[in-house]
Amino acid sequence: MQGHPAIITVLNEVLTSELTSINQYFLHARIYKNWGLAELNNTCYKKSIRDMKQADELIERVLFLEGLPNLQALGRLRIGEDTEEMLQCDLDFQQEQLPLLKQAIALCEQHQDYVSREILVEILEHEEEHIDWINAQQYQIGVMGLPNYLQSKVGE
């Protein structure tokens, strides 16, 4: 089935975002693991795996629409040097991703591509959930203080 060129283009833009996210979250996970922050490692690692599955779904959809998935493009990674900065980098990345997803969803609706729209809506829901999680971590740091917060994230 040949898809609309604009849909293929926007799906590739979202794919670029997901590929970037995979790398950022995977590296943050491994930094947390190195620091002994098992809970943060697990959360970021699972996020990178979820993003990989979402990227796979986007690749399959672009191929189905007879487009060529672009796996060569990668956005700028935002890698923090401490826990607070890493959380803020992830939040900034997530917040920049939302408008792209909403634009892509609207474009799919405009061209009546409801299958692509559904894929994008699921991705948007996961990204919004992760933003909520980051906000909760930043709140906990504010309330507990960084040393107590970090101590609570050690171990499994």
TrEMBL record:
Catalytic activity: 4 Fe(2+) + O2 + 4 H(+) = 4 Fe(3+) + 2 H2O; Fe(2+)(in) = Fe(2+)(out)
Cofactor: heme b
An annotated GO BP: iron ion transport
GO MF annotation list: ferric iron binding; ferroxidase activity; heme binding
A Pfam family of this chain: Ferritin
Enzyme class: oxidoreductase
Gene Ontology cellular-component terms listed: cytosol
Residues engaged in binding Fe cation 1: 18, 127
PROSITE patterns per UniProt: BACTERIOFERRITIN (PS00549), FERRITIN_LIKE (PS50905)
Highest taxon listed in the record's lineage: Bacteria
EC number: 1.16.3.1
Residues the record lists as binding Fe cation 2: 127, 130
Domain Ferritin-like diiron span(s) in chain numbering: 1-145
NCBIfam families named among the record's database cross-references: bfr
Record-stated family: Belongs to the bacterioferritin family.
Biological role: Iron-storage protein, whose ferroxidase center binds Fe(2+), oxidizes it using dioxygen to Fe(3+), and participates in the subsequent Fe(3+) oxide mineral core formation within the central cavity of the BFR protein shell.
Protein name: Bacterioferritin
Originating species: Rheinheimera riviphila
Gene: bfr
